[in-house]
Amino acid sequence: MDNRASAEQTARDALAEAAAVDRRMRARTRGYGVFVLALALFFPAVLLVLGFVPLDPVVLAVGSAVVGLSVGVGSAVVGARLTTTPRGFHRRYLTAFLTSAGLYTVAVLVGATLLADSAAWWIGSAVLTAVPLAVLGWQILRDARRPAPGQESGAARRA
């Protein structure tokens, strides 16, 4: 009987350790969610500045290059510093980032050449550009808070 009780206790200890590791890993992935949400706010903020602050085309080109470079460097720094990535993060991030970057590029090119005086264009483009990254950031933060399968709270199991 002692061997069985000992084995059960060992199993409980192993499950408790696995749950603790899961909580630590999920907590470490929250940084990605926050980063992606910040980036989702950054793209539209730049678009709104481009649309509503009169800029020389040279300043626009240099500013866009600086913004693009800073976003790229920021992504690399954040990626290098965080030790844990959410499941499928690289593919999902690349998809969301490239979609937002593509929308941003179209918004800047069309807005600067054809619709420079259209507030609706710049505001609509800013909102649309934020959507892919905002959705990804929300998903990452939601998944970081969600309990792992099989580790629901006692209330959830009883229901």
From TrEMBL:
The chain crosses the membrane at residues 32-53, 59-82, 94-115, 121-141. Keywords: Membrane, Transmembrane, Transmembrane helix. It comes from the Bacteria. This is Integral membrane protein.
